[in-house]
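Bug #77: duplicate submission created two jobs. Keeping one. Sequence:
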Amino acid sequence: MTDQSITVMIVEDDPIAAKIYEQFANKLDQFRIIAKASTGEQALELLQAFAPDLILLDVFLPDMNGIDLLRTLRQKHQGIDVILITAANDTETVSGAIHGGAYGYIIKPIMLDKFTATLEQYAATSAQLRSGQTMEQHEVDRLFRPSGRLVSQQAVKGTADANMLPKGIDKLTLKLVRDKIRAQTGPLGADEFAEAAGMSHSTVRRYLEYLVSVHEVEVETIYGTVGRPERKYKWVR
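Kept job's structure:
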């Protein structure tokens, strides 16, 4: 760990999910888990002893709604950033997260690539804000886009240029995936798209989730009668 480690509290009532988030975060050198809470009340009690930089927060807690906890955090702990990780995908909850100042919003079931990209993006933002330097307008714009605030669709699409690609995203492969999904007539699952594109499932999933993160691709979760829910991807037209 470095002196600039980002300290994290996980607020999640599912112990298995909390453990997964901890394992994912531990794969990134910048992040250090310092506390875990299973209820909103427990989180508020822990905040009397711990001062994390970032909270990974579920919405559906046993004792309160995560959005209500987010509002409380904004009143009492303004210096703490929050990333929502939740199955809630209704517009009311998403709107509450935006108005509550959440940095990010990850819909369950989470994907490692999306989780990692969001945290790495947060780490880059934190490092730039700690630099103490003045900033140009384009730099400010770049910081506001990943935070979940409302910006125009065309402006957001501009974030996917080659100079800003995260680790593991190749310019040429990205262009191939972008062209392939743009040509599709309807939403496809990662397996279907991998077969159509002639690429591996893991590669396709990584690039699709990246395109979702920069709002070039939309995703919907299809719940079948059996098995795990499936994510379907389509180009934002």
